[in-house]
Specification:
Length: 425
């Protein structure tokens, strides 16, 4: 029983030392190149990488996300005929044992008569989903000429490595019901990897928006400063030049060995913030990569988790929906907020603005300070618009908003809503 791994060939590497033998032996300087265009002819032996392909000389490295392929050949080397020959192939990982092929019973396709010299061949493919040591178990089951059942096994051990190191961290933007996910990809192999696609698969509670763009179309080509480009003149179209910064391997970005790449995604909650306070799982990173000779792999990270808020949920929460980033001094502007009742009881809510100098911070309410929002049902929300005006230029926080709850003894101070840049007219 023989097992051979099926993998891509590599280019044949040589170590050429091109030189002129006649000039070297006579001690003369090599002749100057001719201006007539008759340059020396280079042969395949003069190049480090030839056009010849070389079959793998070893088992090679195997990475997570690849499809492991092997060719298994079972040959009857005895001088007698065997009966009911079957082949069973399994793979054992640290977590499970899985059967890949089984022809050990007649219903599964066992060979009834296995003549001397006859072979039983199988091609096995298995997607690698676990790291660590894998054991390929090949079992041959047959009956001898006397009808006695016999079998033998062979074990082939190989190590599955991680091609990419993925580290993620999260940043919560509670005021906008958004979470930023920042992921660093590092090539953990000794060869370049071409990233065909990098994406984030969010959980059901979130929508995702990528903030990193590696599209070659957005990178303009730099002008070529050489005699050839000067000879082309003004007829050269910049759009026809190759993009700068990305390889000419389709539209895929690549990572050299040990290189890193940053990706960032913005997650927006599909539900109000108080419903997402207990949701820690955000989603998974998904990467499709290719190696030098076209070997492809598909990799998914572990679930990206975030730290849940440590503070207890307020009975009434206020979140900013729309707020300007900058305004002009003494010019009215609007801020839209969402007022959320996180309890299981109805509440009568009223809005008021504390206009004391200690709380206004140069931003005051434009209009009357008291306004009733009516009854807010349990686990519901209501939108409100605040008309404000800035009195002093500079960077200020919008503070002073208070909620008057019918079930509370004192007004609830909302705290800073947003930062605002106030400009002079």
């Amino acid at each position: 029983l023989k097992v051979m791994r099926l993998c891509k060939p590599t280019f044949l590497n040589t170590q050429p030392v091109p030189f002129s033998g006649m000039a070297q032996s006579s001690g003369q300087a090599p002749p100057a190149p001719s201006t007539s265009g008759n340059l020396p002819t280079l042969h395949d032996d003069d190049c480090a990488i030839s056009g010849m392909l070389m079959l793998p000389q070893s088992f090679g490295d195997i990475f997570l996300g690849e499809t492991f392929s092997c060719y298994i050949s079972l040959t009857n080397i005895s001088p007698v005929e065997l009966n009911q020959m079957g082949l069973k192939v399994e793979v054992q990982t640290q977590l499970q044992r899985e059967t890949l092929s089984d022809s050990s019973i007649p219903e599964a396709g066992s060979v009834r008569r296995f003549a001397p010299g006859q072979t039983l061949d199988r091609i096995i493919r298995y997607e690698l989903k676990d790291l660590g040591i894998h054991i390929l178990i090949c079992s041959a089951l047959y009956a001898d000429s006397y009808g006695g059942g016999k079998y033998f096994r062979k074990f082939f051990k190989f190590q599955v490595q991680n091609p990419l190191s993925m580290k993620s961290k999260t940043h919560s933007l509670a005021a906008h019901n958004e979470i930023l996910v920042e992921t660093q990809l590092q090539n953990a192999t000794s060869r370049p990897l071409f990233l065909e696609s990098v994406s984030f698969i969010p959980s059901a509670q979130f929508d995702v928006e990528p903030l990193t763009n590696f599209d070659a179309a957005v990178i303009e080509a730099a002008p070529l400063e050489c005699s050839e480009s000067a000879a082309m003149g003004s007829n050269t179209d910049a759009s026809s030049l190759p993009p700068v910064g990305l390889p000419a391997f389709g539209h895929m970005a690549y990572l050299k060995a040990g290189d890193t790449q940053q990706h960032m995604y913005r997650l927006r909650g599909k539900q109000p913030p108080w419903h997402l306070r207990t949701v820690a799982a955000l989603g998974r990173m998904e990467v499709v990569w290719k190696a030098q000779m076209g070997e492809s792999g598909h990799l998914q990270s572990n679930t990206v988790q975030r730290k849940l808020p440590t503070s207890a949920a307020r009975a009434i929460e206020v979140n900013v929906l729309v707020a300007p980033q900058q305004v002009v001094v003494e010019t009215p502007f609007e801020v839209s907020v969402s007022i959320n009742n996180t309890t299981s009881r109805e509440r009568s809510i009223a809005l008021r603005f504390d206009s004391s100098p200690a709380n206004t911070n140069a931003i005051v309410l434009d209009g009357a300070s008291g306004r009733s929002l009516g009854t807010l049902k349990a686990n519901s929300s209501q939108n409100a618009t605040l008309n404000l005006i800035a009195l002093e230029p500079g960077m200020h926080k919008i503070v002073g908003l208070q909620l008057v709850d019918s079930l509370a003894d004192a007004p609830i101070d909302v705290g800073p809503l947003a930062d605002l840049l106030v400009l002079e007219p």
